[in-house]
């Protein structure tokens, strides 16, 4: 009697497993169906170009981009011996070093200010985040006027203080700084908005409790605001980092890589190589290198950053 | 000595006039004072005004006989426990407890001494290195209490500290908080919407509704002599049984369905004959033994609580509940004999909702036993 019962149970488990398998396959197929639109879009606009770029980087091409001669790793070798590329690598790193901390510090400062509950604070929030709505081209034109050697406001202000005029975009020592300055201005809007959102999601009870405990403003900033904001800060830093490496528009508009290649960041160098010199193979190789650099640095950032980030 | 004193305290916001109105109150040193009321009654606002987290619109607030209207929270020498505990999620239990002392730059040695002392008292010694998210609800609650205790502030404010706990833990924490308060001799101002918490914990209770004080008194007084219909129905579980009543021809007629003969001695100084509302507690609707029954009522619901039984009757359009000690095998639809007498009834004016006459017999029979 009892043997029979056990046997019957065994049969059932087998059937259960089968039924579960069918259900799993069904739900997998359904999931794929939902993902299909993005799979198609990503394939056409991301995966295909990526593999095409890798493919191209092993070839020499004619002016239309068609492959001519297979050269293997020669494109990469040539790049790393080219002083021009090494220069643009250096410029890119400097540019990132100027803009990322600059953007984050300025927008954090503005966000902390704009987080205060004051009358008319909405106006300031709008102003501080407004650069998000300005296109790179428009912003560049605007900054071009500011940087203009004779009629630009910046030089006029300097003159007012009796300082000699600066060739903002023409002086090799200043050009990268000027481009960085305008980039910080352009990126502050977005970063500010994200940080403000992060600040507003911090529970007000924490501050009230600290008020009763007698904590000063800076103590609260250091012990509550910054740690509680760390996930947002981490996100903002990572995104700004990637953005800075990919900067193109303002360089193209303001300096065209000059003077003396002082602002020739990698993306601009890729553009020149591909569409001015028609060296699609070499340009592809540069693009691959940029991709690897960003990937590695982002991974490093995650490894280092995650330990210091407090998720709630 | 009066620890906290409020004179004509008022609060209004730009878009909402008179959130609190004419609050006059004195809280003694070492007293466990409970502010109770439904949500939106202004009790939390009042507590936050005492703490200094909300501006005071009008009136005077004194702590230790000094006017503190203008002082910042940290200068009022008090501690506060928040409803959601306000623990810092990125700090360990130890850092959480020491946050305030650290901010006030208390000496390191003194910090450690107080930490050990408090952790032992609250049973947190094992948990000091943990983060709040690794703690259970009850443990978090204890950390919040520890943070308040460690400050050595003589005045402690609590804003619904038990509302996030389950029923069992809540009953336990009620006793712990009460014991802690007595042991440390704290003056406690405790906000809750739960009348059971108010009754069980408070030395004195203030019932607040719509920003106005309804009644201030010790729990028993509030229960026996509620100042108005709001207090009567807010305090006590099950809820007091209410019914509109009129007096006609030496009879009290409740909800047009219950007639009770009355004499002048029963109603004392009531001259009003119409627009009365009577209230009778569930434990005062007795089971009527054969010769003593006054009415027979149809049971519409029975709740067995183990040691007592709740029976629900329909009186006019009101539902009345009787609480009988022991286990009664009554069934829905049964007619049961009950004894309802005027001496247990409180009389209220239906229009003003004010108390006209409290139940005359509570003190005698309800045995508020003094030990």
Automatic annotation (TrEMBL), chain A:
Region forming the signal peptide:
none
Q: Which Pfam families match?
A: BPD_transp_1
Q: What sequence ranges are listed for the domain ABC transmembrane type-1?
A: 89-301
Origin organism is: Gracilibacillus ureilyticus
The text of the family note is: Belongs to the binding-protein-dependent transport system permease family.
Question: InterPro entries, alphabetically?
Answer: ABC_transporter_permease, MetI-like, MetI-like_sf
Gene Ontology biological process terms, A to Z: transmembrane transport
**Gene Ontology cellular component list:** plasma membrane
Name of the protein described by the UniProt record = sn-glycerol 3-phosphate transport system permease protein
Enumerate the transmembrane spans. Answer: 28-51, 91-114, 126-146, 174-196, 226-245, 283-302
Q: What is its main location?
A: membrane
**Membrane association type:** Multi-pass membrane protein
Q: Which domain of life is it from?
A: Bacteria
Listed A to Z, the keywords are:
Cell membrane, Membrane, Transmembrane, Transmembrane helix, Transport
Q: What subcellular compartments does it reside in? A: Cell membrane
UniProtKB/TrEMBL annotation, chain B:
Tell me which UniProt keywords the record has, alphabetically: ATP-binding, Cell membrane, Membrane, Nucleotide-binding, Translocase, Transport
Residue span(s) of domain ABC transporter: 4-235
**Could you cite one Gene Ontology molecular function of this protein?**
ATP hydrolysis activity
Pfam families from the entry?
Answer: ABC_tran
Which Gene3D superfamilies does UniProt cross-reference here?
2.40.50.100, Nucleic acid-binding proteins, P-loop containing nucleotide triphosphate hydrolases
* GO BP of this protein: carbohydrate transport
Entry keyword Metal-binding: no
Q: What Gene Ontology terms describe where this protein resides (cellular component)?
A: ATP-binding cassette (ABC) transporter complex, substrate-binding subunit-containing
Output the NCBIfam families linked to this UniProt entry.
PRK11650.1 (NF008653)
- What protein name is recorded for this chain? sn-glycerol 3-phosphate transport system ATP-binding protein
Q: Which organism is it from?
A: Gracilibacillus ureilyticus
Taxonomically, what lineage is the organism? Bacteria, Bacillati, Bacillota, Bacilli, Bacillales
């Amino acid at each position: 009697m009892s043997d029979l019962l056990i046997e019957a149970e065994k049969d059932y488990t087998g059937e259960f497993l089968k039924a579960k398998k069918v259900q799993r396959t069904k739900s997998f197929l359904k999931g794929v169906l939902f993902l299909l639109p993005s799979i198609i879009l990503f394939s056409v606009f991301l995966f295909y170009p990526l593999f095409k770029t890798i493919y191209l980087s092993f070839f020499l091409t004619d002016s239309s981009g068609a492959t001519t001669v297979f050269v293997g790793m020669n494109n990469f070798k040539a790049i790393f011996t080219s002083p021009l590329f090494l220069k643009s690598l250096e410029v890119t790193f400097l540019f990132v070093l100027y803009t990322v901390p600059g953007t984050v510090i300025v927008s954090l400062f503005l966000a902390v200010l704009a987080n205060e509950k004051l009358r008319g604070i909405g106006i300031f929030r709008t102003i501080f985040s407004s650069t998000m709505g300005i296109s790179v081209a428009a912003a560049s034109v605007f900054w071009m006027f500011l940087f203009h050697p004779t009629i630009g406001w910046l030089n006029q202000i300097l003159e007012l203080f009796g300082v000699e005029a600066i060739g903002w975009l023409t002086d090799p020592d200043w050009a990268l700084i000027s481009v960085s300055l305008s980039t910080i201005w352009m990126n502050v809007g977005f970063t500010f908005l994200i940080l403000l959102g992060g600040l507003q999601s911090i529970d007000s009870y924490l501050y009230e409790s600290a008020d009763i405990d007698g904590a000063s403003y800076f103590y609260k900033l250091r012990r509550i605001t910054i740690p509680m904001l760390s996930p947002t800060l981490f996100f903002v830093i990572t995104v700004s980092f990637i953005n800075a490496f990919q900067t193109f528009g303002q360089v193209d508009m303001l300096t065209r890589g000059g003077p003396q290649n002082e602002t020739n960041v990698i993306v601009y160098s890729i553009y020149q190589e591909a569409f001015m010199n028609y060296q699609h193979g070499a340009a592809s190789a540069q693009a691959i290198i940029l991709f690897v650099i960003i990937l590695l640095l982002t991974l490093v950032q995650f490894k280092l950053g995650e330990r210091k980030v407090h998720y709630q | 000595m009066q620890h906290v004193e409020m004179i004509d305290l008022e609060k209004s916001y730009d878009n909402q006039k008179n959130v609190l109105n004419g609050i006059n109150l004195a809280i003694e040193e070492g007293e466990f004072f409970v502010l109770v009321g439904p949500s939106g009654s202004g009790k939390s606002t009042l507590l936050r005004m005492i703490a200094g987290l909300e501006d005071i619109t009008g009136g005077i607030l004194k702590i230790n006989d000094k006017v503190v209207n203008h002082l910042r929270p940290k200068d009022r020498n008090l501690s506060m426990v928040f409803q959601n505990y306000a623990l810092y999620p990125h700090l360990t239990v130890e850092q959480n407890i020491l946050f305030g002392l650290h901010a006030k730059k208390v000496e390191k040695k003194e910090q450690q001494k107080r930490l050990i002392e408090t952790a032992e008292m609250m049973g947190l010694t094992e948990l000091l290195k943990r983060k709040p998210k690794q703690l259970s609800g009850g443990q978090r609650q204890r950390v919040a209490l520890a943070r308040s205790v460690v400050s050595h502030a003589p005045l402690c404010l609590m804003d619904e500290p038990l509302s996030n706990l389950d029923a069992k833990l809540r009953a336990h924490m009620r006793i712990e908080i009460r014991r802690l308060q007595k042991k440390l001799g704290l003056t406690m101002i405790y906000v809750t919407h739960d009348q059971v918490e108010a009754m069980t914990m408070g030395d004195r209770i203030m019932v607040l509704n719509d920003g106005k004080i309804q009644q201030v008194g010790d729990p028993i007084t509030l229960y026996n002599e509620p100042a108005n219909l709001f207090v009567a129905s807010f305090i006590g579980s099950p809820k007091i049984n209410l019914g509109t009543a009129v007096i006609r021809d030496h009879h009290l007629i409740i909800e047009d369905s219950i007639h009770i003969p009355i004499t002048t001695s029963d109603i004392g100084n009531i001259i009003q004959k119409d627009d009365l509302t009577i209230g009778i507690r569930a434990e005062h609707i007795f089971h009527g033994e054969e010769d003593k029954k006054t009415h027979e009522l149809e049971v519409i619901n029975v709740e067995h609580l183990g040691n007592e039984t709740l029976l629900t009757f329909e009186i006019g359009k009101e539902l009345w509940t009787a609480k009988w000690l022991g286990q009664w095998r009554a069934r829905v639809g049964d007619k049961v004999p009950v004894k309802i007498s005027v001496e247990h009834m409180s009389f209220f004016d239906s229009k003003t909702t004010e108390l006209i006459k409290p139940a005359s017999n509570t003190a005698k029979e309800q045995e508020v036993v003094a030990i």
